[in-house]
Design brief:
Elements: H1 14-24, E1 31-32, H2 49-60, H3 75-86, H4 91-94, E2 98-103, H5 105-120, E3 131-135, H6 140-147, E4 153-157, E5 159-160, E6 165-166, H7 168-177, E7 183-187, H8 200-212, E8 216-221, H9 231-234, H10 236-243, E9 248-253, E10 266-271, H11 275-292, H12 299-309, H13 311-341, H14 350-353, E11 358-360, H15 365-375, E12 377-378, E13 384-386, H16 395-406
Helix pairs in contact: 2-12, 2-13, 3-12, 5-6, 5-11, 7-8, 8-10, 12-13, 13-16, 15-16
The protein binds pyridoxal-5'-phosphate (PLP).
């Protein structure tokens, strides 16, 4: 018989399927609260004004071309991206033990970091090292680490459904009982999907246990700026861990805070023990990137690098980020107020307590199904909604629909 391309049918990726279903829905009142992207109050994607400006500068710059970048990426992008995460006055940067790999989005940064850890962490082949991800988490975390060869993926307690907040004692308990040297993926800010982050004091408790138990911290920073509107506030946890002497990885995505989703701009910041270790780590990173995408694309990295390295553009970008964060905060306050005014059964204060792009509404799968099928309000079955899908025009309809789904 002839050779054939054999495969079984794979399930569609939930969030993309939701968007397709939304597109096909003829209901004029339909609302998409699924997709993880910013929308304006008119419901449109937003090209940040600062990005438009820099795009023009790049087009007009005749010194630029489309030659390959170095394997590890655009140097001025990598260093400025790390500075955003660690702060310009970071002692680790001054000690020359911070380096970075330009990656294809935050996903690429997680992938390259995971590949490195599987090959080199603790000097061993680490297929058996436990990798802990929060329960719940962004659905790709498990798959990215499994795909890099990790066989022992474990959820750690994070979300207390009853109190709709952080399960701190559960989280600390997992840290205490995890095998030494386990890898923990931590959301740097604006936890996806719960919108619930530890407080500073709680982060300090987490760091204390992780340090004592020699656990590896892999921060995922996909929403810097989105949580509070302030880059420094949103990087507090990452910076605190560095002051505590951790070696670490931090996967940064510029998809959301620059609105550069399809340009695939990410950075894996590496904080090593010393300059010598960093050099060795980067040499191995180069090998991993070479067999993965060989070298990264330029446009998005240039946009970010020019913006971060030009003081007036940097200020403008911070302002653009704040515009997005403020709109989210406004929608949170407004949705909560409307549900309370409707006297929708249950407590809705968690909507304003949670931060970032998402809110974990606490709606159960039946209520979600009602919203999708009967009201054309599209949201993830977990009850997660993207606050940016709300606008001043559709918020009454969404609040009334949620009310109907609950009563
Ligand atoms: N990590 C988290 C927690 C995310 O929510 C996302 C995107 O939704 C990513 C990583 C990946 O971002 P990117 O699109 O830059 O790969």
């Amino acid at each position: 018989s002839k050779p054939a391309l054999l495969s079984s049918q794979a399930n569609p990726v939930a969030v993309f399927k939701l968007t397709n279903d939304f597109k096909e829905d003829p209901n004029p009142k339909k609302v998409n609260l699924g997709v993880g992207a910013y929308r304006t109050d008119k419901g449109h994607p937003w090209v940040l004004p600062v990005v438009k400006k820099v795009e023009k500068m790049i087009v007009d710059d005749n010194s630029l071309n489309h030659e390959y970048l170095p394997i590890l990426g655009l140097p001025e992008f990598r260093s400025s991206a790390s500075k955003i995460a660690l702060g310009i006055d970071s002692a680790a940067i001054q000690e020359n033990r911070v380096g970075a790999v330009q990656c294809l989005g935050g996903t690429g940064a997680l992938k390259i970091g995971a590949e490195f850890l599987r090959r080199w962490y603790n000097g061993n082949d680490n297929t058996r090292t436990p990798v802990y991800v929060s329960a719940p988490t962004w659905e790709n975390h498990n798959a990215v680490f499994a795909n890099a060869g990790f066989e022992d993926l474990r959820p750690y307690k994070y979300w207390d459904a009853e109190k709709r907040g952080l399960d701190l004692s559960g989280f600390l308990g997992e840290l205490e009982s995890a095998p030494k040297h386990s890898i923990f993926v931590l959301h740097a800010c604006a936890h996806n999907p719960t919108g619930t982050d530890p407080t500073h004091v709680e982060w300090m408790q987490v760091a204390e246990v992780m340090k004592r138990r020699k656990l590896f911290v892999f921060f995922d920073s996909a929403y810097q700026g989105f949580a509070s509107g302030c880059l420094d506030k949103d990087a507090w946890a990452v910076r605190y861990f560095i002051t505590q002497g951790f070696e670490m990885f931090c996967a940064q995505s510029f998809s959301k805070n620059f609105g550069l989703y399809n340009e695939r701009v990410g950075n894996l910041t590496i904080v090593a023990r010393d300059a010598d270790n960093l050099k060795r780590v980067l040499s191995q990173m180069e090998k991993i990137v070479r067999v993965t995408w060989s070298n990264p694309p330029t446009q998005g990295a240039r946009l970010v690098a020019v913006t971060l390295n030009t003081p007036e553009l940097f200020l403008e970008w911070k302002d653009n980020v704040k515009t997005m964060a403020d709109r989210v905060l406004l929608m949170r306050a407004s949705l909560r107020a409307k549900l309370e005014a409707l006297k929708t059964p249950g407590m809705w204060d968690h909507i304003t307590q949670q931060i970032g792009m998402f809110s974990f509404t606490g709606l159960n799968p039946k209520q979600v199904e009602y919203l999708v099928k009967e009201k054309s309000v599209y949201l993830m079955s977990s009850g997660r909604i993207n606050m940016c899908g709300l606008t001043t025009k559709n918020i009454d309809y969404v609040a009334e629909s949620i009310h109907e789904s609950v009563v």
